[in-house]
Amino acid sequence: MKRILSSILMLTLVISLLSSCKKWVEYSPREDFRQTELDYLRSENDYRTMAVSVYTPLQWLNQSVVVGEIASDNAVSGGENASDVISLQQIDDYTHTPINSTLTELWQSAYEGINRANYLHQYKNQNPSGTVVSFAGKEALFGEIYFLRAYYYFHLVRFFGDVPLFVDGRLSLADSKTLKRSSKADVYRQIEADLQAAITVLPAFQTQSGRVTKHAAEALLGKVYLYQEKYTEAAAMLENVVSSNSYTLVPNFASMFLSSGENGPESVFEIQYSNATPYYNWGAVNRGQGNYAVQQCGVRGLNGSDSMPYAAGWSTNLPTTDLANAYQAGDQRKNATILDIEAYKAAHPTYNITYQVAPYKNTGLYNQKFLPRKGQTSGQVELNYLNNYRTIRYADVLLMAAEANAKAPAANEAKAKEYLNLVRKRAFGDDNHDISASGAALQQAILDERRLELAMEGERFFDLVRTKNAAAKIPGFVTGKHEVFPIPLDEVVISGLSQNPGY
Prior knowledge:
The chain has helices spanning 6-22, 44-59, 63-70, 86-93, 101-122, 138-160, 175-178, 184-201, 214-227, 231-243, 292-296, 321-326, 333-337, 341-347, 394-407, 413-428, 439-454, 460-466, 470-473, 489-495; strands spanning 75-78, 163-164, 181-182, 267-271, 299-300, 312-313, 316-319, 338-340, 365-367, 389-393. It is mainly alpha-helical and 503 residues long. The chain has a domain at 298-371. The chain has a two-stranded antiparallel sheet. Strands 2-3 form a two-stranded antiparallel sheet. Strands 4-10 form a two-stranded antiparallel sheet. Helix 9 (214-227) runs antiparallel to helix 10.
């Protein structure tokens, strides 16, 4: 853990040393106009500004979506060659080890978010100077903080299983070497507690896009229950979202993934990206304000007339032909999810399209949902695409609710089929493709529908793992090992954490 938050921990050390010095001489660094922790959280604006910083690491988790597809049967790594972003190649080939830069970044980013949330939690009632800062909406603001902490821990437990759990405050220097991994059960209990606390204080709607709402917390808690096979609890919680009548399925599936479709009527929670400030840093997890994963999935060397909407990319995260073949004729989601570049070129001869065939693991298919488009980036173009990630969509809520109702001890298959078929009606534009199956066949139909609906959105690997279908679907997957990813080696060596089995 020491590596995760070195800059923040160094600040803790400096403050600690300065405090120790004061025991011997009556000196305050503030006398020399130096900013210390005592200058933090002195006003409502301070709390609200720092709360925004707890959202920021969400942007750094974009590779979790890429991994969730490449590690599954939905996508291959692609790229220029076998060593192009080798961390993703290893995950695709199931040769990944504890030395993997992508997995290390996903670990570090989540714990940065947790540490920021814990800092605010630590000073919720009194600021570092011991002063109580009260203001209207403070409880609701902390509902956002608790949701975000739960989100970061859920990310970690899905990727790594048992992980270090701390909630009282920032990680101290002493804790960095003594904190051990907590069981998944304990981590889930904390996630549930944070989300339950958030639900009681969050508003149903927020005026600012991207802010957490009560329904987003309910949806995430329903998902957390589903992962633990608490189907009755999941069904009840997800029903709160459905019965709120706050969300609708947009008729045009593809429109959701355009910039004009961001934060739309189907969006329950969406990670915001921006190209307004073209900050970039290739050497850090916080590369920029934009969605770096968009550049990855673009067509390599793409060129064409000015009227062609797409921009070039790196031909990474390529959909498989197996995914493409899973869609039925007439399903509008196929063309909204997968771009067949040769078919597109043939359909648009006036665009004069040229491109470089993906040199490695070419499928001829590209991720249409997040394909880079002209005019949507700035500065260091690769790092600053503005495309949001639709992290929780209403269709996802409906399919989770369908699964929970179908699998609950007191199953409600009528409701399960109702929710499943709402999603299918939108996909096909008619009632002719409704599912009427029951029992195990209905449960499988729901999982199949999740694949088609949420393809290339980062859910497939985790759905296969939690439903124990991964070994049958993913070449190279080893049961008892690959359900989770390895703990980054630095955390094992520096912090003394135990490693996951098989790594």
